[in-house]
Every structure is written in C-alpha cells, then in structure tokens.
Amino acid sequence: MKNNLRESIPGAPLSENPKTVVLTGASSGIGRAIARRLLECGYKVYGVGRDFGEEIWPHGFHKLIIDMKNTGSFYDQIRGLLKRENICGLINNAGAAYYGLHETLNPAKIHEMVTVNLEIPMVLSQLALRDLKKNRGHIINISSVTAKQTNPHGCAYGATKAGLSSFSASLFDENRKYGVHVCTIHPDMVKTNLYRNADFCQGEDEMSYLTPQQVADAVMYVLSVPESMSVTDITLRPQKHQIRRK
C-alpha cells in the first residue's frame, strides 16, 4: 500500500494527493514548528489550536480553532473530519502544564492537565486507528522527559506525561502487526511558553535548552525511516543543564 507518510520528500511542494496529518497544539511553540516542517515537506495539515492570530499560513494548512477542554465539541469535529479525510498521521502535541507544590493546585488545573495531556491523545488515537491501520500510518505523541523521572513541584504534570508514554508503548505493541507506527518523543526543556505558569524557565545559554525546530526535526526523522523499522522512543536533551528562576 503506497499511502504512507514516509513517501514525502523533505522540501517537496504540496502534491496533488498530499498525505493528511492531524496535529494538536499547532498554533504556537513546538506545534507551530512541526506544522511548518510538515507543510514544507508536502503534507496537508489540520492544525488544532485556540488562537492562530493573524498569521498567514501556506496552502495545505487548515485551522481547527477550538478550545480542546470542550471535549464533546472537539471530538465531534474530529469525527466529522475523519469522515471527509483519509488520515495518515496523528501528532498529539498539545499540552497543559501547571507547576508548584501539589497541595497548591486546584482541581480545575489537575483536570485540565489530565484532559489535554492524556485523555485527548487516547481518544484521538482510538478515533483515528481505522484510517491509520489502512494507511500503515503514524501516531507521534509529544511527551516529556518528566515521564521518566520524579517531578517534585510538577507531580500531576509528570504523571500525565508518564501515562502518555505508557499508553504509547502499549499501543505500538497492540498495533504493530497492522503496520501502525507509534512513537513517543521526550523533549527536555524547550524554549516555549509552556513555563508561563511556572516560577522557572530555560537558562540563558542557548546550549541549555532545545528549540521547537529541533523537536520538529525529530518528528520528521520518525516519518523518514524505512517502513520495515519503527522508531518508538526518542529522548531529546540540551547539552547543558541549566534552569533560570523568574
């Protein structure tokens, strides 16, 4: 079957029958960088986000403007999209993060992290699997290095990312016989606005943080490997470890 994400050549223009990818959290940061790279490589991208501002996007990008916390409406939109489009890739990138002592978090913040970081990737994967099996497609989940360690001052966030990583590993074993590729990318600190709700951020030295473009490059690598091989886990770390207090 020749309807695979890997067929696209980096830098190729949008083809007459582009491969279609659904990408959450596409309006900024890592998601925006991934969307731009996919478009450069000839993919058709349905990008989910709350606010895309007035940025002009290239041909092939389709905005799905919605608050993902409104899960009922969001899932209905995705079901409608899957009836119209032949999906070859799902990239679960959207994330919610609140930091601090666990006792200081309120239930609404905990619920938001569980919904955005774990529930939505699980449900979207379930909805898309029929197309992905047919097309021998990809699910790429953007997790975090926090999934692999303890996380004082980020207990709930780390738990949701650990859950996402565990789900990804099991989903691959369940679906590898159908040709579905599942990869989890675990970035360390990336220079984005994810830390807007924290009292810390990345260091000033550019060697102490990753860029959204570097994570996007990892996504494109996953999509480029031979069909006989699956990349299931990538961890990305900056060369230096440095955190700056705000």
Automatic annotation (TrEMBL):
It holds the Pfam family adh_short. CDD domains: SDR_c. The keyword Coiled coil does not apply. The keyword Oxidoreductase applies. GO terms for molecular function: oxidoreductase activity. InterPro entries: NAD(P)-bd_dom_sf (IPR036291), SDR_fam (IPR002347). Keywords: Oxidoreductase. This is NADP-dependent 3-hydroxy acid dehydrogenase YdfG. GO terms for cellular component: membrane. PANTHER family: DEHYDROGENASE/REDUCTASE SDR FAMILY MEMBER 7B (PTHR44196), DEHYDROGENASE_REDUCTASE SDR FAMILY MEMBER 7B (PTHR44196:SF1). Belongs to the short-chain dehydrogenases/reductases (SDR) family.
